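Thread title: Can someone regenerate the structure for this chain?

I was given the following input by a collaborator and told the matching structure tokens would be attached. They weren't. Posting the sequence so someone can regenerate them.
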Amino acid sequence: MSEQSTWHRLLRMPLFVIPFILVLVFCVMAVAPQWFAGWFGHGDPHSCNLADNHLSLGSGLGLSAGHPFGFDPQGCDLYANVVYGTRNSLSIGLLATAITVVVGLVLGSVAGYFGKAIDAVVSRVMDVFFGFPLLVGMIVVLNTFTVHSVFTVSLVLALFSWPQMARIMRSSVLETRNLEYITAARELGAGSTRILIHHILPNSIMPLAALTTLNVGGVITAESALTFLGVGLQVPSISWGVQLNNAQQYFTINVNLLIFPALFLTVAVLAFVLLGDCLRDVLDPKLR
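Best answer:
Regenerated them for you:
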């Protein structure tokens, strides 16, 4: 299937177009949150006034002119915080996925192509990760860091995410390495590195590429869960997970503190998952 026909097929699928537009909106929101924060509100998540606290804790929903979501317990504009929270949440999803794909691509390709001892070592390491409780492992590793930044949280999430990508890549390479054109290239004297980079990877990477978008949604959810548990990003960082964590004590008084960050999180994750499903259906040769 040519690249042009693939795009034509995708653009005829509403379940691809709608999530694709939503993902683009969230990406733009992450890059330039001030554009969105200024549309309906005052636009500054750090402009807080404790005098506004009464609007969010004790007076219903706390909605007011210029503050469509109300205020948080510190008197900060909740709408601006939710919008700016997109940057860190999405950054962790994309960065962790990028690290995961690179590690999974390299280890899966090497294990699948060379086999024998290399395959045995990589496979046993993957088995260790598959048999370990992921949430417990992430919490333990994160607790060893003194600073919980976007990079450290992404690194820990990638540490426990790469085995799935590596296993998929290994399986795809195993199916490709003994095909006729690979054998012909080997007989013509092409080296292992050249065969792997120029012949095997381009014809084995589609299943991995199809799962990349799905992984972004999963990582965003995992980051929010870890932050909600108090081991992910921490104040003064802004993310949807941080806001959900802050809402634990107050959402019975002001449900907005829980609803709006959860709504943005749900829509973003759903958009990435639906986009990933469509890409997998089109790009994965096993599903055609």
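The CA atoms of residues 104 and 165 lie 5 Å apart.
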